[in-house]
């Protein structure tokens, strides 16, 4: 039996020795865990048909096998060994580099293509169809101060078709084509997902969290496997969704991500980007022989280096946040090693993204705030108010979204995924087009909301009544009364807020790639901007009130509405997004804040506003916690019933392992392989007679001392490959 | 697995080279953009000029100067000039690559869902059809993957190996589709 090296010759005695505290009875009962028939063992396992599990014992076995192979190679020829080691080393490093470069490029491609396709809904560039509106007018000298988006090279569909840019017919035509393009994009996306890679749908974060949890658990358990319940944990957390990180998932998710983002649906690309990065990591680690056969190591590489730092780095444009995030996430065991690895990973990925320069402004991020006006203590009150709003909205969103998803899962609604996407897209496009703030892409909207109204701005939001004899320099403009444009913008924003809140509930969870981050930021930013303008006008008109007296003299610039938008947006996402981080980082609130706050600063560049941001974040978290501890991804994990082991929960039920394990008393004995005296025929009979996924290897029937575990697959393969060799020596 | 490395690497390098390789600066890839806010009775304006980074200021870019000589300094103080670069070739190549990948995928999708079932029907004739209808109730794409898999296993040559791999992939996707769309076990 020893000769069949495929997990059979595993030596795991060291880990499996019984702890001194445990009774011997428990130790004997411990073995049957391995005989668990995972596919239909009990109600808890019955649903996972598409999944397999991996365990640390199995991973150890695979690793041992590799070592045996390597030492054999060493004996053969020292020179060959050196050459092969060198080859592995070089290929390893170049592949890692290539992989990081690849992810950065992918992120750039997604950004550029989504930008272009979003604008395709409204018109086309005559200079070259591949330019988006901004790029089309990039060199044009004919853009005006008031209408910056327009230039003769960029033609709206109505101008191109009926040669009119104004009027009812042009509006209707544009409206119609906008909706049609949106429908086309989303239809293509959902059918691609359906035909090629169903696992590409959704945000991917709950599942990626699942995988992360698995990788982390595995590390934990390789140390702690001595204890009884952690063995069950290992099996459970060795849960792999097969094909979830595959090549087709990667391709389809990337392609459809662009389609859905540009279809104007209320979703973002950040969550799926993390999944895409994970797929890349998996793909590239499968190229390395060191990692290709070892599921656990592979996960480690793909999760640590890709999802941890690279995903965050390219998705949010926050390389340092990515590094910190990765450090916090895996700091259980190898912080230093991992710190370097992820530092390097984030660096290369960010560098690549920067070299593609997707936003055309030589920055990694889209939302960059440039104001540095101070804030005042009295402003903390509205900031906290925004935090409360954030918490309430977060709770509402989670409750409604989960209720809707449950309905989709259980009722006949779930039978029409394509139709559902089409209907939601149609509703979104039809409602969004009339309102200028929902018509444009969400990220454009956010960056406009973050903007401070300087003299250089000409948007409707900045339509303040200017003092004629104002002679101040550009940067320091005092508070001004709002003009009609601002009031129009306010009610349009209010409508946009309501619309976004409602539509996001129905959008998240459809069978297309969808992220939650951008819509959450948008809702927060809209609410923040409205509050900000309100406070500004209040301060302008009532500057003799007690709270404003010391703070806001007439003619001073004291309230920055853009800052409110930023605070609002930071209070909101953190509510869900903090939960994500909480999961990934698995470190509790205090540690979470560090990388989260860094990511937020990197995203916005506003280093002065630590206190407002944190105040809003903490308030929103408290409020949300008051209504329920469950975050959105948490809730989705529960909804799908993944065997997720939350680090925050400790096991309160002290169920003994003997109570759940099989075989119980009165059932036939456990099917095992014995170490020495089994023939191939015995093994074949065993495989034929039972349908277990694997068999424990014990010393003999008398002393059931566990020495390893052989998977059914491995046995079958081993027997099949050896069958043609006559002098098989088993 | 080692043998697959060169193939993958080649593909990836080609892709990266296509996106990054052609980064030589076009003359239309740099600009200096000045935004000048309204000043006295003059409306605000935007100026775009193709100048070097060192010349990127209001005096070089704004021409003709809308205000008389005495006001030039005051006017220029308010303007904000930014030097920006882009790579139009990268944009072009990226969009074209994206569109061609999308096009290929769509063609393949149409082939798999519409053309292939039709061909199969014509090839295997009527008797096969009845058999198929019994065990394959649904009309999902790839519904006959099981059959082909069983058939191709019996014959063995290089062409069939490719077909076998394709059918295996189809089976996997079918399984995924079942668990996502029908049973709602994952990702719902």
From TrEMBL, chain A:
Residues 661-727 form the CBS domain. SUPFAM superfamilies: CBS-domain pair, Clc chloride channel. Keywords: CBS domain, Chloride, Endosome, Ion transport, Membrane, Transmembrane, Transmembrane helix, Transport. It is a multi-pass membrane protein. The chain crosses the membrane at residues 86-110, 175-197, 308-327, 339-360, 380-404, 416-433, 489-509, 516-535, 579-601. It is found in: Endosome membrane; Membrane. Belongs to the chloride channel (TC 2.A.49) family. Pfam families: Voltage_CLC (PF00654). This is Chloride channel protein. Gene3D superfamilies: 3.90.1280.20, Clc chloride channel. CDD domains: ClC_3_like (cd03684). InterPro entries: CBS_dom, CBS_dom_sf, Cl-channel_core, Cl_channel-4, ClC.
From TrEMBL, chain B:
The keyword Transmembrane helix applies. The keyword Nucleotide-binding does not apply. Coiled coil: none annotated. Keywords: Membrane, Signal, Transmembrane, Transmembrane helix. The chain crosses the membrane at residues 95-114. Residues 1-21 form the signal peptide. Pfam families: Tmemb_9. InterPro entries: TMEM9/TMEM9B. It is found in: Membrane. Belongs to the TMEM9 family. This is Transmembrane protein 9B. It comes from Ranitomeya imitator. The lineage of its organism: Eukaryota, Metazoa, Chordata, Craniata, Vertebrata.
């Amino acid at each position: 039996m020893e000769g069949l090296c495929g997990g059979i010759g595993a030596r795991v005695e060291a880990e499996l020795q019984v702890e001194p505290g445990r009774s011997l009875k428990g130790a004997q009962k411990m073995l049957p865990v391995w005989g668990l028939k995972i596919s239909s063992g009990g109600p808890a396992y019955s649903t996972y048909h598409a999944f397999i599990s991996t365990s640390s014992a199995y991973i150890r076995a695979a690793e041992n096998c590799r070592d045996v192979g390597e030492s054999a190679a060493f004996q053969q020829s020292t020179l060959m060994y050196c050459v092969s080691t060198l080859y592995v080393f070089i290929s390893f490093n170049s592949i890692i580099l290539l992989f990081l470069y690849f992810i950065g490029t992918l992120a750039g491609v997604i950004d550029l293509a989504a930008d272009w396709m979003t604008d395709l809904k409204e018109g086309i560039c005559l200079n070259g169809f591949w330019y988006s509106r901004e790029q089309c007018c990039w060199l044009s000298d004919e853009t005006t101060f008031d209408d910056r988006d327009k230039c003769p090279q960029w033609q709206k569909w109505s101008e191109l078709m009926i040669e009119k840019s104004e009027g009812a017919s042009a509006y209707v035509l544009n409206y119609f084509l906008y909706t049609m393009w949106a429908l086309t994009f989303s239809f293509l996306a959902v059918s691609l997902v359906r035909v090629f890679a169903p696992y590409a749908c959704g945000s991917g974060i709950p599942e990626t969290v699942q995988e992360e949890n698995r990788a982390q658990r595995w590390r934990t358990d390789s140390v702690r496997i001595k204890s009884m319940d952690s063995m069950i944990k290992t099996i459970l957390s060795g849960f792999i969704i097969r094909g979830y990180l595959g090549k087709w998932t990667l391709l389809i998710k990337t392609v459809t991500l662009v389609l859905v983002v540009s279809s104007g649906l209320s979703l973002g690309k950040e969550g799926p980007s993390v999944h895409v990065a994970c797929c890349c990591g998996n793909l590239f680690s499968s190229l390395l022989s060191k990692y290709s056969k070892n599921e656990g190591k592979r996960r480690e590489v793909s999760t640590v280096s890709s999802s941890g730092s690279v995903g965050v780095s390219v998705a949010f444009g926050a390389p340092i946040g990515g590094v910190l995030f990765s450090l916090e996430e895996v700091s259980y065991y190898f912080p230093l090693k991992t710190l370097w690895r992820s530092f390097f990973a984030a660096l290369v990925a960010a560098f690549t993204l920067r070299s593609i320069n997707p936003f055309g402004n030589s920055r990694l991020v889209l939302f960059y705030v440039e104001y540095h006006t101070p804030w005042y203590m009295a402003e903390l009150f509205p900031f906290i108010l925004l935090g409360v709003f954030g918490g309430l909205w977060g709770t509402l969103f989670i409750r409604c979204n989960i209720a809707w998803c449950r309905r989709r899962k259980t009722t006949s609604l779930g039978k029409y995924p394509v139709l559902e996407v089409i209907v939601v897209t149609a509703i979104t496009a039809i409602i969004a087009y009339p309102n200028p703030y929902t018509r444009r892409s969400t990220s454009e909207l956010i960056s406009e909301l973050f903007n401070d109204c300087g003299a250089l701005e000409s948007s409707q939001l900045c339509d303040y009544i200017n003092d004629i004899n104002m002679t101040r320099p550009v940067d320091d403009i005092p508070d001004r009364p709002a003009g009609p444009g601002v009031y129009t913008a306010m009610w349009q924003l209010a409508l946009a807020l309501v619309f976004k809140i409602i539509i996001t509930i129905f959008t998240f969870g459809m069978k297309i790639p969808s992220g939650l981050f951008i819509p959450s930021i948008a809702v927060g930013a809209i609410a923040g901007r409205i509050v900000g303008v309100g406070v500004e006008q209040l301060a302008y008109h009532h500057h003799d009130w007690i709270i404003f007296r010391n703070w806001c003299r007439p003619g001073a610039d004291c309230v920055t509405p853009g800052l409110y938008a930023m605070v609002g947006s930071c209070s909101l996402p953190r509510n869900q997004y903090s939960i994500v981080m909480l999961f990934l980082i698995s470190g509790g609130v205090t540690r979470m804040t560090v990388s989260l706050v860094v990511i937020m600063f990197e995203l916005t560049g506003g280093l002065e506003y630590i206190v407002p941001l944190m105040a809003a974040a903490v308030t929103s978290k408290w409020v949300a916690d008051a209504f329920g501890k469950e975050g959105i991804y948490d809730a989705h994990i529960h909804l799908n019933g993944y065997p997720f082991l939350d680090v925050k929960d400790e096991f309160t039920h002290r169920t003994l392992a003997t109570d759940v394990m099989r075989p119980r008393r009165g059932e036939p004995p456990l099917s095992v392989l014995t170490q020495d005296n089994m023939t191939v025929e015995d093994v074949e009979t065993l495989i034929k007679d039972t349908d277990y996924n694997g068999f424990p290897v014990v010393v003999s029937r008398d002393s059931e001392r566990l020495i390893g575990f052989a998977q059914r697959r491995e046995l079958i393969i081993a027997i099949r490959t050896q069958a043609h060799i006559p002098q098989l020596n088993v | 697995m080692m043998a697959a490395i060169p193939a993958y690497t080649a593909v990836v390098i080609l892709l990266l080279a296509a996106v990054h390789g052609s980064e030589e600066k076009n003359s239309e890839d740099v600009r200096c953009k000045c935004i000048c806010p309204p000043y006295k009775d003059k409306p605000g304006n935007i100026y775009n000029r193709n100048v070097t980074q060192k010349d990127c200021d209001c005096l070089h870019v704004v021409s003709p100067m809308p205000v008389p000589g005495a006001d030039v300094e005051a006017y220029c103080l308010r303007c904000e000039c930014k030097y920006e670069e882009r790579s139009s070739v990268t944009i072009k190549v990226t969009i074209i690559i994206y569109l061609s990948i999308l096009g290929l995928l769509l063609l393949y999708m149409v082939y798999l869902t519409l053309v292939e079932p039709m061909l199969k029907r014509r090839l295997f004739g009527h008797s096969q059809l009845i058999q198929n209808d019994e065990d394959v109730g649904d009309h999902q794409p790839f519904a006959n993957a099981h059959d082909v898999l069983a058939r191709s296993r019996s014959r063995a040559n290089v062409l069939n190996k490719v077909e076998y791999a394709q059918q295996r992939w189809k089976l996997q996707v079918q399984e995924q589709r079942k668990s996502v769309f029908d049973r709602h076990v994952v990702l719902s």
